[in-house]
TrEMBL record:
<feature type="binding site">
    <location>
        <begin position="29"/>
        <end position="35"/>
    </location>
    <ligand>
        <name>ATP</name>
    </ligand>
</feature>
<feature type="domain" description="GMPS ATP-PPase">
    <location>
        <begin position="2"/>
        <end position="185"/>
    </location>
</feature>
<keyword id="KW-0547">Nucleotide-binding</keyword>
<dbReference type="GO" id="GO:0003922">
    <property type="term" value="F:GMP synthase (glutamine-hydrolyzing) activity"/>
</dbReference>
<dbReference type="InterPro" id="IPR001674">
    <property type="entry name" value="GMP_synth_C"/>
</dbReference>
<keyword id="KW-0067">ATP-binding</keyword>
<comment type="subunit">
    <text>Heterodimer composed of a glutamine amidotransferase subunit (A) and a GMP-binding subunit (B).</text>
</comment>
<dbReference type="InterPro" id="IPR025777">
    <property type="entry name" value="GMPS_ATP_PPase_dom"/>
</dbReference>
<keyword id="KW-0332">GMP biosynthesis</keyword>
<dbReference type="GO" id="GO:0005524">
    <property type="term" value="F:ATP binding"/>
</dbReference>
<keyword id="KW-0658">Purine biosynthesis</keyword>
<keyword id="KW-0436">Ligase</keyword>
<dbReference type="InterPro" id="IPR026598">
    <property type="entry name" value="GMP_synthase_B"/>
</dbReference>
<dbReference type="InterPro" id="IPR014729">
    <property type="entry name" value="Rossmann-like_a/b/a_fold"/>
</dbReference>
<dbReference type="Pfam" id="PF00958">
    <property type="entry name" value="GMP_synt_C"/>
</dbReference>
<protein>
    <recommendedName>
        <fullName>GMP synthase [glutamine-hydrolyzing] subunit B</fullName>
        <ecNumber>6.3.5.2</ecNumber>
    </recommendedName>
</protein>
<comment type="function">
    <text>Catalyzes the synthesis of GMP from XMP.</text>
</comment>
Amino acid sequence: MVDVDSFIEEKKDEIAAAVGDGHAIIALSGGVDSSTAAALAYESIGDQLTPVYVDTGLMRKGETDEIRETFDYMDSLRIVEAQDRFLDALEGETDPEEKRHIIGEQFIREFETVAKEVDADYLVQGTIYPDRIESEGTIKSHHNVGGLPDVIDFEGIVEPMRDLYKDEVREVARELDLEEIISERMPFPGPGLAVRIIGEVTEEKLEVAREANHVVEEELEEYEPWQALAAVIGKATGVKGDNRVHGWVVAVRSVESRDGMTARAQEIDWQTLQRIQSRITGENDNVARVLYDVTHKPPATIEYE
C-alpha cells in the first residue's frame, strides 16, 4: 500500500516540475481517478491549471450538475457542452474498439480547443495502473491511454497516478478531503455509457442506459459493489399492457473486486432483482426485459464493450 502523505507531496512536486511556468488542463470526468488527479494538480499548481469537464452526452444522470457543485472552488473550471459533436462522430459505428477510439479522439480535440484558448501546454490525466495494463495487454483501449490520437497538440501529458490501483486512489482522495460522493464512487468508464450500449450509440439507447444505470446504482448501494451497471444489449419481444412489443433488453451487472483486474459477480437476492426489473421496465416503456449477468472476470470483462 502506498504511503499516502509521501505520495501526495512527491506528485505535487512532480506536477509542478513538469508544468514549470506553463499552463495545464486536466481531463475532469467526475470519477474518482480524474477528480483525485484534478485535486492533486490544483494543490500543486493552482491557477496554472484549467480543469476541463466535457459533457459528452454519454454521462451518468445528473453528472454535469454534480461536477459544477463539487468543483466550484476551482475558479478556472470549464464545462464544455459537446453532446452533439460526440453523437455525430459515433453515428453509424458499431465496432467496440472503433467507438472507443472515436471517443478518445474527440476528447483530445475538445481539450486542444480549450488548451489553445487558455494557452495551455500540458494535459493532466487520471490514468491508473490497471488502465495501462489492460491497454498494453489489448484487453481494451482507454481514451486516456490506447485511444489517444497519433498526433497531440500538447508539449506533454502528465499522469501522476499511473502506478496506483483503484483502492490506493481512494486513499489519496480521502487524504485530499474530497467529498465522499467522489472518493467512494464506483468506477465509471472513460467512454461513458457508450460501452454500455451494444452496437450503435443513439439518443434512445442512451436515455434507456442512463435511467437504468441510475436505478441499478440506487438499488444496489447497500451491497457495496466494486461496480454495478446496466447495459443495453439488444432487443427482444415483450408485452406491455395488451400489446406485443419489440423492446430493449437491459443486462444488470454487479461485481466485487479489489482493483478491477479480476472480479466476481455478486449474489443479489431475488427480491432486489425483481425490484430492479420492475423499476426499469416500469419507468421506460421501451424496455421489454431485464437480465442479471452472473459471469465473473475472467472470462468476461466488467463492462460490455
